[in-house]
Amino acid sequence: MFYPSTLTFLLSMLFLGTLQAQNSGAVRAYGDSVYRKISDMPEDEKKAKALLELSFFWSDYDTAQAFIYIREATKLMETEKDSPYQLGLLSFYKAAVHFDTDPQQAKKLYMLAERHLSKVKTEEAMRYRIRLWSSYGALRQRDGEPNDYVDALINQVIPLATAIKDTALLGNNYQNVAMALMNMQKYKEADQYYKRAIAMLGVSSASDEHRLTAYVNAARNAVFQRHLEQAEKLLSQAYDVFKRIPLSTYGPIYHAVYGSYWKKRGNWKRAFEQFDLGLARARALNSDEMIASVLFDQYETYKEAGRLPEAKEALLEVLPYVEKSAIWRNKQRIYYNLANVERDLGNFESSSAWFKKYAVAVDTLMEDTGEARIMELERKYQTAEKEKELSQTREINQRQQLSLVRTQTWTIILSLCCLLLIAVGAITFITFRNRKRNENQQARMRIFEAVAQGEEQERSRVARDLHDGLGGVLAAIKLKLSAIVNQRDSTAHDVTNSLNNLIQDVDYSVDEVRRVARNMMPESLRSMGLEAALGDLCKSLQHDNLQIDFAADNISAHKSTAFLISVYRIVQELLTNMLKHSQATHAWVQCSERDGEFYLSVEDNGIGFLYTSSRENNFGMGIQNIKNRMDMLQGKWSIDTAPGEGVSIHISIPLHDHRKN
C-alpha cells in the first residue's frame, strides 16, 4: 500500500526554507554579528568568500540585503575579477538569491557558473559545482521534471563527489537520489540508493544527523512498500543514532515515520502516540515546516481510522502553514482534502466552498507551470537559432573547401548521393509498411471499442428497464399485498401467513433486481463519478471475514464514459477473482492521477500464487477481459505475487485519449 500524497506533501514542506527557529529580529541580529566578524578579517580573499556565504544566508530572508553583500564581495575581487573561478563564484551566489524569486534566472546563472567553474580543476571548485548542480536539479524538480533532478544527481553530482573522495558527501547525495525516486513512487529503485547511502554514511567522517536522516527516510520507503520488518529494523537503527543527538532537527520526522509504521500495523494507539511526540518536538524547534508535515501524517491516520472530526481538525491546523507559503501544490492538496472530509461529515455547503478554493489553486498552479514551460521553450528556441547560425557558418567554410577539391571528389559525392537515395527509399518503404500496420491495428481497436461501447450501452438500457420498470411493478405488488394482510382478521391466520411469505418473496425479488441493475451499470458511476462508484463497489463486496480499504487521490471528473466503465469493470473483475481464489482477509484498492497518467493498484494478503508472464495466456476469461480492456485503453499492468505472499496488481493508463468530449 502507498500514499503518495503524504510523501509529496512532506518533501515540499521541508523544501520551503531553512529549519532555523528564528524570528526576523533574531535573524537580523545574527546576520549583523557575522558581518562584524567578517569586517575584522585581514585578507580580502577570505573576507570576499565570507561575504558571499553571508549573502547565501540572507537569500532566504532578504534578497536586497543579499545583493548588497555580493556587491561588496565583488569590489574585493577586483584584482582577479575576470578569472573563471571568481566569475563562477559570483554567478553561483547570484543564482542562490534568485532561487525562490526568479527560478528561470537562477537556472541561467547556475549554468553560467558551471561553464566557468568547469575550467577550474581544484577541489574547492568541484565542491561548488556539486552545490550548483544540486540546486539546478531541485529547480527542475519544481518545474515538474523530477527525472531531471535525478539525472543531475546521478550524472553530475555523484561523479564529482566520487572524484574528490568525500564519502559523507557521496552518501548524502545517494540519499538525495533515493528521496527523489521515492517521491516518484519508484520504491524498489529508491531502496538500492538508500542502501548505498547508509553504507557510505557509516564512515566516521559522516555526521550523526546525516545517518539519522538516511535511516528515517529508508524506513519511510520500506513502510510505503509494506516491508514492515525492514522498516522496524531501520527505525531501530535510527533510534540508536537519535539517542546521541536528541535535539536533532529531524527528530519530528523520525516520530512521524514511526507513527506511519504503527498505522500500517493497525495499532492506532501507538501511531497517535508517535505523532504526538513528533508534534511536541517540532513545536519545541519552532519549525513551521516540521509541524505541518507531522500534522498531515496525523490527518491521514485519523482519516484511515475513521475519526473524521479529528482528521478535519488536523487539516485545519496545517492550513495556516501552507497558506503563507508560495507553493500552490500544497494549498491545492489541503483544500482538496478539506473538501472531502467536510463532504464525508455531511457538511456539504462547507465542502463546496473548499472545492472552489481547490479549483482556484489548480488554475493558479497550471498557469505558473504554463509560464515556466513557455520560458523553457523560448530558451530552447534561442539555442536552436544559435546552432543554426553556427551551422550556416560551417556550411560556408565547407563550400570554400569543396571548391578546391578535384573532379574525383564529385564522383564520390554522386556515389554517396545514390546510396542516400537508396537508403531514403528503403526508409520510406518501411515507414509506409509500418504505417499501414498501425492503421490496421488502430482499426481493430476501434472495432473492439465500438463493440465494447455497444455492449455497455445495452447493459445500461437493460439496467434502467430492470430498475425503473420491473422494480416499480414488484414494489407496487408488495404494497397491495400488505394492504390485504392488514384487512384480515385473526380468523384468517393461515391466509395471512401465506400472504406474508409472498410479501417476503416479492421483497427479495425487488432487492435482487436492484442488485442485478447495479452490477450491470452502477448508478453511482453515472451520477457521482468513478471515485464514488469504486468506493461503493468495495463496500458491497466486504463481509465479516474480509475488509476492503479504498483510497483515491486527485481523480478528476473529465473522462469519457468508456474509460470510466472500463476502469470500473477492471476493478470489479480483479476483486471478484480475489474473492474466489485468494482466501484474503484484507484487500486494498487505490487509484490516483498524476502527470497525465491514471494509476490503479489492487492488493490483498491472500495465499498468492506462482506467477510467470508465460502463464497469462492460461488464465480464465475474466483475466482475458481485463487484458482486452487494457489494450483498448493503451494501458500497462504488472503482477507481483508469490505463494503465501498475497497479490499486488499495478496498472497505469495514459489519459490523453480518454478525456470527456
TrEMBL record:
Q: Which CDD domains match?
A: HATPase_UhpB-NarQ-NarX-like
According to the entry, every stretch annotated as the Histidine kinase domain falls at 461-657
InterPro entries recorded: HATPase_C_sf (IPR036890), HATPase_dom (IPR003594), His_kinase_dom (IPR005467), Sensor_HK_TwoCompSys (IPR050482), Sig_transdc_His_kin_sub3_dim/P (IPR011712), TPR-like_helical_dom_sf (IPR011990)
Judging by the UniProt lineage, the source's domain of life is Bacteria
Q: Which reaction does it catalyse?
A: ATP + protein L-histidine = ADP + protein N-phospho-L-histidine
Give its E.C. classification number.
2.7.13.3
- A Pfam family: HisKA_3
Q: Which residues cross the membrane?
A: 410-432
What is the protein name stated in its UniProt record? histidine kinase
Q: What is the lineage of its organism?
A: Bacteria, Pseudomonadati, Bacteroidota, Sphingobacteriia, Sphingobacteriales
